[in-house]
Structure to design on (460 residues):
């Protein structure tokens, strides 16, 4: 393992300069080849991808006084009809569009911490609307702790320090204890970010090449022989960028067609893959988890802990089964007979608290203090979209890219909505939800923006 100490200042400046230069130049992104979501889930054959143009954000907004666009308010809407597991998995496709960046008054946010404190109780009562973090929490609680949701948790960091965290609702479906800020939720596809960081470390250490064919190697580790040549030629980069040619395999992961991720990977590696265009598929990251095990000879979860979580000082995260949450874990409503957590594994089975997620994403920001798991060049590659350039929108390697300096990931499975985002201005936020609302996970971003406004943190 290479020495992964604190990043040097020139590296941080270089990343920031690259993002700002792209914004200032007003470049237009090279369109990426983004396949649409599957229509029928019955077939796992790759569909023909169509091109979708990515584009640059108007620019990187700096902290300070600025004209602020009208903030989206959260409407009071009737409870949505019950959603099936098929509805949930249909919403898993990443969205690269976000609201325009609204500058935050970071001094006000830090000052509010002095009054409220991390994890302070947020009473909801009568009288004037609360402000500061109390107002922020009240807005989130009002917007999300309804429509069937049972628990919500949030964390915010500024400059690498976690300055606020809160939780609302109940830990279990039968009432039980109140949810607490450190409780762990399903994070679904945000698990892909952990997998990508771990595998990219192995690339940096020379254990595997980013463009080295690994399909036949993983197949052999699973006892599969005689794979098709296009399966054997799959590379590490193609797994991490969803350009391997794997289909969606929704039946394999969500409808009981496999017993676990090892079984699912075996199904995928025995099939003929399609072209190498971008096509978001859990199969890529299930196979990536199997690749990590084959390269290290150790369980995937143990490798992630050794290489990422333990150096970051994190504990309590785990790959969880579909049922039977442990202590300090939030229970998610789940359809009987499902086993998707077992089949997703490295693609979507981690449990974590929002505070854990902002710490992980902060580790990818070289402008902040602390241990960094990856080098400058690797981070640039991680934040460069398929068929695009650094600073453009699209899918990178384990990251959804929202424009210059803004990146993160969403996670969606049954009764699970999670999102983490680095705003590119020193602020990172993460939110986790147990329940069916909102219908589309990216809707969490305008909800949290409205919470920042409710707290009085919008500059201007």
């Amino acid at each position: 393992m290479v020495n992964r100490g604190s990043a040097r200042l020139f590296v941080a400046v270089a990343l920031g300069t690259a993002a700002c230069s792209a914004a200032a130049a007003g470049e237009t992104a090279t369109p990426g080849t983004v396949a649409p979501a599957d229509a029928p889930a019955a077939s796992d054959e790759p569909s023909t991808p169509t091109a979708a143009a990515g584009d640059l954000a108007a620019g990187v907004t700096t902290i300070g006084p600025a004209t602020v666009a009208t903030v989206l308010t959260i409407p009071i809407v009737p409870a949505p009809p019950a959603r099936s597991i098929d509805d949930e998995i249909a919403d898993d496709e990443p969205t690269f569009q976000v609201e325009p960046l609204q500058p935050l008054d970071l001094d006000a946010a830090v000052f509010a911490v002095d009054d409220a404190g991390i994890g302070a109780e947020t009473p909801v009562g009568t009288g004037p609307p609360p402000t500061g973090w109390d107002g922020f929490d009240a807005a989130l609680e009002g917007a999300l702790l309804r429509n069937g949701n049972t628990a919500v948790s949030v964390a915010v960091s500024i400059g690498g320090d976690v300055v606020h965290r809160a939780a609302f609702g109940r830990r279990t479906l039968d009432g039980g204890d109140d949810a607490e800020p450190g409780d762990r939720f399903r994070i679904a596809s945000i698990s892909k970010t952990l997998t990508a960081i771990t595998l990219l470390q192995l690339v940096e250490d020379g254990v595997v090449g980013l463009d080295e064919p690994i399909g036949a190697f993983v197949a052999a580790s699973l006892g599969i022989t005689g794979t098709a040549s296009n399966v054997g030629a799959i590379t590490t980069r193609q797994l991490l960028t969803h350009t391997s040619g794997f289909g969606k395999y929704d039946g394999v992961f969500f409808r009981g067609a496999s017993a676990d991720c090892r079984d699912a990977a075996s199904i995928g590696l025995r099939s003929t893959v399609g072209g190498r265009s971008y096509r978001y598929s859990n199969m890529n990251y299930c196979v990536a988890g199997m690749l990590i095990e084959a390269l290290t000879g150790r369980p995937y979860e143990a490798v992630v802990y050794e290489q990422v979580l333990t150096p970051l000082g994190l504990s309590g995260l785990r790959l969880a089964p579909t049922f039977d949450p442990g202590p300090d874990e939030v229970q998610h409503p789940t359809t009987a007979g499902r086993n998707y957590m077992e089949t997703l594994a490295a693609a979507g089975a981690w449990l974590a608290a929002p505070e854990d997620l902002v710490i992980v994403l902060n580790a990818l920001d070289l402008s902040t203090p602390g241990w960094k798991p990856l080098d400058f060049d690797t981070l640039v590659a991680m934040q460069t979209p398929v068929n695009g350039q650094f600073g453009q929108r699209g899918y990178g390697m384990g990251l959804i890219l929202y424009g210059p300096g803004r990146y993160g990931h969403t996670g969606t499975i049954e009764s699970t909505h999670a999102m983490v985002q680095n705003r590119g201005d020193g602020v990172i936020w993460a939110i986790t939800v147990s329940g069916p609302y909102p219908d589309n996970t990216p809707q969490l971003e305008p909800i949290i923006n409205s919470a920042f406004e409710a707290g009085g943190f919008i500059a201007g």
In short: The chain is about 30% helix and 15% strand. The radius of gyration is 21 Å.
